[in-house]
Amino acid sequence: MSRLFSNYIIKNLELKNRIVMAPMCMYSSENDGKATEWHVLHYATRAVGGAGLIIQEATAVEPEGRISSSDLGIWEDSQVEGLKKIVDACKKYGAKIGIQLNHAGRKCEAENERIIAPSSIAYSDKYRTPAEMTTEEIHEVIKSFGYAAERCVRAGYDVIEIHGAHGYLINQFLSPLTNKRTDEYGGSKERRARFLKEVIREVRKVWTEEKALLLRVSAEEYDEEGNRPEDLAEMINMVKDEGINLIDVSSGGVVNIVPERFQGYQIRLAEKIKEKTELPVIAGGLIIEPQMAEEILRNRRADLVFIGRAFLKNPYWPLYADEKLSNIAIWPKQYEAARTGKI
Length: 343
Fold this sequence. Notes:
- By secondary structure, the chain is α/β, with parallel strands linked by helices.
- Helices cover 33% and strands 15% of the residues.
- The chain has eleven helices and twelve strands.
- The strands form three sheets. The protein has an eight-stranded parallel beta barrel, surrounded by six helices. A two-stranded antiparallel sheet has the order 1-2.
- The longest helix has 21 residues, at 135-155.
């Protein structure tokens, strides 16, 4: 039996397969953070296509936490109705659905917003220089994650993923490249991890113990002075007892360095995080062919795989993978005629 199409259980969540749709920004909101018909159709199509778990794109916990003016938001109650439509559509068509909670920090490009970060260092000369956060502002953002988590409960999400990767605010606190603070939130790894620890603790006040909580990290920053997989694993071990159940392993985005990309280029990073934290991991990085996904899982290099660009190109990638590997997945009855040998 294909391991890619075996079920997976974590906390109270059972996935029908190990295919995770990676969170990918759609930049399709109308400057109010609210979900549109596009979002509902986009995610529901991948549910019809057979994804086991869909993780919704980075969704801002504050207006100034958006990556762009067109990002989804979850900073106010009026946004819950639209998000619930996404959730209900995905569940109707057989997928579990998660949300990635994010604050962009210094990488915010939303119009007319104040930019904040751990330290007053711009991402590049094309970005505005952020204001260094006061302790009071740090506490306010932490509370915003908690308020967002409470809205996630009302919207009906199956999992929450805290976005600690790609150079956004949590990642900015974790990295020595972007965190030059001298207070309790900067300096040693333990102090750089404090912001993340307090975010997790705040989310867990409303996201109860039986629900799965994921953390996405950039395990490699591609700068000799930045974090490496061993550093991230050490910091994950400092915070995981606050309630992290699964690590989604990515890389880059902290500084303006583009790594060499090839099929499976981040898998070794996931292996290291899995080994050193003893937590299950989601691995990915230009996984295109089902055979590669199957090899990763069969060799226990990861517990699940995330599919990104391939899912944009082919919303029915899991059905394509089923044809290549197993022919055991339950297809939508409307599409049965397209199975191998029936055309």
